[in-house]
Amino acid sequence: MHGVRMNSFFRLPQALLAAAALASMTAMAQPIKLGELNSYKTFPAFLEPYKKGMELAVEEINAGGGVLGRPLELVTRDDNGNAGDAVRVAEELLAREKVDALMGTFSSAVGLAVADFARQRRAFFLAAEPLTDKIVWESGNKYTFRLRPSTYMQTAMLVPDAVRLNKRRWAIVYPNYEYGTAATAAFKQLMIARQSSAIEFVEIAVPLGKIDAGPVVQALLETKPDAIFSSLFAADLAKFVREGELRGLFRDRPVVNLLGGEPEYLDPLKDEAPVGWYVTGYPWSDIATPEHKRFLQAYQAKFKDYPRQGSVVGYSAVMSVAAAMRKAKSTDAEKLVVAMKGLVVDTPFGKVTYRALDHQSTMGAYVGRLAVKDGKGVMVDWKYANGADYLPSDDWVRAHRPPD
Amino acid sequence: MLPQYDALLIGIGPAILLALWWLLKRTRWGMLVRAATENRVMVQALGVNEVWLFTSVFFLGALLAGLAGALQLPRESANLAMDLSVIAEAFVVTVVGGLGSIPGAFIAALLIGLVKAVCIGLGQVQLGSVVIAFPKLTLVAEFVVMAVVLAVKPYGLLGSAPAAPPTTPVTEHRALVRPPGRRSLITALAAIAIVALLPAIGDEYDLVLATDVLVFTLFAASLQFMLGVGGLASFGHAAYFGLGAYAAALAVRHGVAMEAALVFAPAAALVGALIFGWFCVRLSGIYLAMLTLAFAQIVWSVAFQWDSVTGGSNGLIGVWPPAWLGGKQAYFHFTLCVIAAALIAIAWLAHTPFGYALRAGRDSRLRAEASGIDVRATQWAAFALAGAFAGLAGGLYAFSKGSISPETLAIPRSVDALVMVLLGGLNALVGPLLGAAAFIGLQDSLARATEYWRAGLGVAILLLVLVFPLGIGGAAQWLLARIRR
Fold first, then answer.
1. Which pLDDT belongs to residue B45?
2. For position B445, which CATH number holds?
3. Which of A145, A204, B111, B140 is the most buried (most CB within 10 A)?
4. Is residue B66 part of a domain?
């Protein structure tokens, strides 16, 4: 008892000081509110690390004095994984929380619905994760920006390796929804354009999250492909790998798998990680750039855990909005939109630019091959593919993106 | 080449089938279970503790479900998506096989698995100039199988028609249904007038929530009309909500004005409900409910995959009301007017001779038919009307969100509607309103208060159901009746 009293006695002045400082801060500066909505309960593997990434960014920004002299505050909401609820949640963030900017979303459908809502309400929206090409191109709008490389871009990053394999007959397996069909279409289009020798494709679409791996692998074996392109992820990928190994599908057959190297989907495979596959992903333990090392140390110090792909996305998204506000010297949506055009942001993957042309950032992804090390799946022989090098031509973008 | 574990599974399935068959047909316990299923009261009268008996059946069922999960584990890691899809599939297998028939369930599971494997195996097939991608059918294969089987064999593959009692036993006391009098109408109009004043006290988000509550009230009311008045359970009511939403959204995207496009919503849902209803009213009970689910899933898969028309998994965006309804307040008042009119129409319908005929068919099909009521036609009409009202709700929903995506048609939305109806009370006039308000209010407040809002929502609903077995509306009616006495 005595010790406790002593302690609190000595701490009292400090506490008073802190309280006074806090009071003066809140009196001077209302926090800037970032309204974030995401499908936390639907895609926890990606979004829990994503949330931690955002928290780290907010902590660092506030430790450095905040933005425009005001602290940053994150207001997160679960959008229940569907577009209707997401729009309701976005209404709540704008109307009741009076947030200064909207960000987040995971699936294409939710991302597009919130983007269109942002257009309607003239609110600033940074789509952090949705991979759909449409959100910046066919359905792009003035108020929406997107951080991650799109399905088309990530597919394009794998195409050079696929072309080098010089295979004739490709089997394509993909989850039956927008991401899978877009990846398949992009792969076919790019391969036909780049490969000089003859090429043909067979396709199998599987229901998302419910792959019937045995029959799928059997059907693939019967088509006798020379190589396989897959855009499976999460539980579907794990089942496909297990059945495929069991039935010898991958023997002497190169496989190219979008997103397969992201820790979110690679780690659950453990020592079953399929060796030699060509993937996009995030080899967090091996990236030696100073900006990534600093991020890695800060993240591990705060959470006692290593970052996943989601962590980088969450961290970079918050940093992007903060940078836009600093450049705009305002939180006004119209001014933020102007500031975001051509904005350069420091991320753990290096500097990325938000293009004025289509609001897509030039963030890239790591491309490499899978291997097993100490009973865990890792990426080897990887290199960073800069997003700027894998975009469609400016003319194509102008032809497909509606004017603001 | 067959993996060893698959070979093991192929052996385990029939072994469990045999064991279950032996247990039910050859043991005393099985005999008691079969007897109690046929006549619970009789078995009770013979001195069998039927509570224990059914608890043991429940135990065995849960045990086998757990075993199935454990057997699946080497093939896939446990994941959060294992919930609704597995429940739906288990129901489908049971119903396709025929309730109460274990060999039937076995054959049904085999049939569905085979159909899926064949779809995947066929791959893309070129027929003339058309390429059919059979693997895409796996999305709904089990539901297509179920729809076909139930259309041909109304009680599943090996099921038989239950020995129908001459009258459906009325389990709860049902008071004489009287049409609401002038006082009720005045009360309703006064309530609507009060609700219309909400913009004066609430903020913008209150209006968004209130609009949602109104939309889901109509959705729940249309289901309640089918379920409570007509006795027709629907597990796929989202189909009509979604049909309405998509019809309205498509009309607007093709240049129709929003006011006119809204007419397309109930019209499209009516057409859909007329077609599906024609098949559904030929069945009864759980078979009927599962057929509605099958149709809903088929509609969902069409919306999900028809990229060029429905926008596929992304759905349709840019479905906003015109400028004069652009404000939250204007849209709220507009919704209130439309929905109040629709709700009054439903209440009126329920108390017309048509409504009474519907109730007669529900309570005693034989007697109703003997007194000259065409029960099937009455039910078909009720099915179609309920669909149209759900479609209207869907249309209003699309314009309030500005976009529409296939989740609007999916199983969870149908479940939400059922939960709202049961929360509100199956036979209470204000049930849908109370149910929708409770559900949306809980979902909204819990989602903001805690990360574990889904668990919170489940517990809250469980508590409400335990405290108010007749629903909140039912409890309110009971209370009112006591006060009046």
1. 87
2. 1.10.3470
3. A145
4. yes
| Dist. CA A97–CA A90, nearest whole Å | 10
CA distance B129 to chain A (A): 17
Q: Which of A177, A209, A212 is nearest residue B116 as measured by Cβ atoms?
A: A212
CA distances to A96, B242, B440 from B210, rounded to whole Å, are: 15, 20, 9
Q: For residues B134 and B191, state if they share a domain.
A: no
- Are A12-150+288-364 and A152-287+366-390 in the same CATH fold? yes
pLDDT band at A5 (very low <50, low <70, confident <90, very high): very low
Half-sphere exposure of A338 (CA within 13 A, CB side): 8
Over the stretch B276-308, which tens digit does the pLDDT of each residue have?
Answer: 999 998 888 888 888 999 999 999 999 988 888
Residues B230 and B134 grouped into a single domain: no
B190 and B245 part of one domain:
yes
Reading the block at residue A145, the tokens are: 């920006």
Nearest CA distance, B155 vs chain A (angstrom):
28
Positive or negative: CA dihedral B153, B157, B163, B166 = negative
Sign of CA dihedral A127, A133, A135, A141: positive
Q: For A354-384, what is each residue's pLDDT tens digit?
A: 999 999 999 999 999 999 999 999 999 999 9
Binary contact (A181, B80; C-beta < 8 A): no
| A-chain residues near B404 (CB < 8 A) | 83-84
Final residue in a domain of this structure, among B76, B107, B128: B76
What is the number of structural domains in chain B? Answer: 3
Test B123 with A210 for CB contact under 8 angstroms: no
Residues of A in contact with B123 (CB under 8 A): 202-204, 219, 223
Chain A residues lying within 8 Å of B135, measured CB to CB: 176, 203-206, 216, 219
Query: Which residues of chain A make contact with B117, given a CB cutoff of 8 A?
Result: 212, 214-215, 218
Closest chain A residue to B136, measured at CA? A205
pLDDT number for residue B165: 53
> Which residues share a beta bridge with A350?
A347
Pairing of strands A125-127, A101-104: parallel
B139/A176 touch (CB, cutoff 8 Å), yes or no: yes
Crossing angle of helices B50-72 and B4-26, rounded to 10°: 170
ipTM of the complex: 0.82
Which chain B positions have a beta carbon within 8 Å of A181's beta carbon?
307, 312
Q: Phi and psi (nearest 5°) for A402?
A: -65, 145
For residue B35, give its domain range: 1-76
Domain boundaries, chain A: 12-150+288-364, 152-287+366-390
Fold of A12-150+288-364: Rossmann fold (3.40.50)
- The answer to the question of residue B178 being in a domain is no
Counting residues of chain A whose pLDDT is more than 70, the rounded percentage is 93
H-helix segments, A29-82: 44-63
Question: Measured between beta carbons, which residues in chain B are less than 8 angstroms from residue A115?
Answer: 317
CA distance B147 to chain A (A): 20
**Inter-chain residue contact A113 with B403, CB threshold 8 Å:** yes
Q: Is A243 on the interface with B (CB under 8 A)?
A: yes
- pLDDT (average), residues A380-398: 94
Residues 261-300 of A with CB under 8 A from B: 268
Cα–Cα distance, A199 to A168 (Å, whole number):
4
Q: Are A361 and A353 in contact (CB under 8 A)?
A: yes
State whether A116 and B403 contact (CB < 8 Å): yes
Contacts of B451 in chain A (CB under 8 A): 40, 78
Smallest Cα–Cα separation from A344: which of A320, A325, A367? Answer: A320
CATH number, domain A152-287+366-390: 3.40.50.2300
pLDDT score of A381: 94
Flag whether residue A44 sits within 8 Å of chain B, measured between CB atoms.
yes
Query: Given CB atoms, is A238 within the 8 Å cutoff of chain B?
Result: yes
